[in-house]
Each structure stands twice: as C-alpha cells, then as structure tokens.
Specification:
alpha/beta; Rossmann fold; 8 strands; globular
C-alpha cells in the first residue's frame, strides 16, 4: 500500500503520517515512512531520539555525485537521468520500531523546469519506493503534491488530504484536489483534524461536498501539551488514538489478515 498525505501547513498531516506508520508497523507490516516536507518534522513525531542527526538524502553529496556523475548544484552539467537507487532505502534509512524513515530534503518542484543531480536522484528514489517496493510506503508531503510526477502518481493507492476547520485549509484542499485529478491519482480521501464541535465537522463536510471522508480527529489540548513537553504524542490522547485507529482500519487492504 502506498499512501501520500498532504494538506495546508500546520493542519496535522505529519501527526497522521506518523500515527499510521506506527499503526501499520505494530500490525506486522513492513513500513517505509518518507519525509518529503522541507520542514522535516516526521522523525521527531515518530519518536527518533536525535532527529537532527538524520542526514537528508539531498545532502548526501558524495552519493549524489557517485550515482549521477555530477556534483550537486551543477544544473548545467551532464549527468545520469536514471541513477541506481535500489540500495539506498537499506543504507540510508533510519530505523525505529519496525519503521524505516527516509528524509528526502528539498525536492525540486516539477513546474520549475530545473534538472539537477540531487533532484534527479530524489525523483528516482521516490519512483523506486512507490513503484518497486512491496512495503507500506507513507509519504508525508508539503502543502502541494509537486513531488508526484504523472508516472509515480498512478502508484499511490490513496492521497489523503488533511484539513482543519478554516477557509484557508479548505482552499488548499481544493487546490490539491485539482492537482491530483490533473495527475490522474486514482483515489483521494479527506481526514478532518482538530475538530472541536459538530458545527466544525459540518463546516468541513459542507465545504468539500462529495468527498470521501476517512474520519474526523478531535481536537485535544493534550496533544499540544505533550508536543511542547517533548513527550510521545501517541500516548497523549486516547480519543485521538481511537479515531486514528478507525482510519487505519479503513485503509487496510481487504486481503490483510493482520
């Protein structure tokens, strides 16, 4: 299963990505979590002790030059457009509780027309992870879906758009929907987050009519307090954990027996 999670900054997509990764891993699945957000908070949210020590793939200059034949940043030079990447998930992923984590670093946006060695390596790695790996792959993206090209988007089983009660979050979701449809993504669903009242839930559902809603995660101050204190957020709120578990069960493949 390949899941891509997007949404406006601050809506809680990293919390959902980390929670689903842990839930899949705890159920016996092999999981690769990919942090493709430049803010790179997935490692900390997953509970890695020293997330700052994880080197993004885009900063592995020697590997980039070895695989592409050009030094990073040399956009005008000649380099391989299909570098070998199949060994990178084992060599350069951080591991915790059955989860392999890869921090991608900054990926060149598809619309810039910029081709550089590090961008080519990252795109080749992302294509390998989505198209050729058997694991559950969970991709934590920034607000857009620029990381996904037309070739890789077909491999995503579901794009999950995380929204919170608010007009800017809804507008971002609508933009993501349009981009996803343009790329031909096969399945798009929505998760509401930080929902305090039935009225806020109604606001989200009425603002995105016809959407497939996987669930609505309640607002709980305990999550924020745990994050500020540096405590594991997964253990902070029973009601949040219960709703994420419901979302996880909806995502399980029909043939899964875990």
């Amino acid at each position: 299963m390949k899941l891509a999670i997007s949404g406006k900054g601050g809506v809680g997509k990293t919390l959902l990505a980390a929670s689903l990764a842990r839930r899949f891993a705890a159920s016996g699945f092999s999981v690769i979590a990919i942090d493709a957000d430049p803010d790179a908070n997935l490692a900390a949210t997953l509970g890695f002790a020293h997330p700052e020590k994880i080197t993004p793939i885009s900063e592995l200059n020697e590997i980039i030059e070895e695989r592409t034949g050009a030094k990073p940043g040399q956009s005008g030079s000649f380099f391989k457009l299909n570098p070998r990447v199949d060994d990178l998930p084992e060599r350069y992923s951080a591991k915790l509780d059955g989860i392999k984590l890869m921090v991608m670093g900054r990926i060149k946006r598809g619309g810039t027309g910029c081709y550089c060695p590090e961008g080519v390596l990252l795109q080749a790695l992302l294509s390998h992870l989505l198209l050729q790996r058997d694991e559950v792959v969970i991709l934590d993206m920034e607000a857009g879906i620029e990381h996904l090209a037309r070739g890789t988007s077909k491999a995503v089983d579901k794009l999950i758009v995380v929204v919170e009660p608010g007009h800017r979050s809804i507008e971002t979701a609508r933009t993501i929907y349009q981009l996803a449809q343009d790329l031909g993504l096969p399945s798009i669903s929505v998760v509401g987050n930080k929902v305090k009242t039935p009225a806020e839930k109604d606001f989200i559902t009425s603002s995105l009519p016809g959407s497939d809603f996987l669930g609505f995660i309640p607002y709980d101050q305990a999550i924020i307090d745990a994050d500020l204190a540096g405590h594991p957020i997964f253990e902070a709120s029973g009601q949040v954990a219960a709703e994420i578990d419901n979302i996880f069960r909806k995502l399980l493949p029909a043939k899964a027996t875990h």
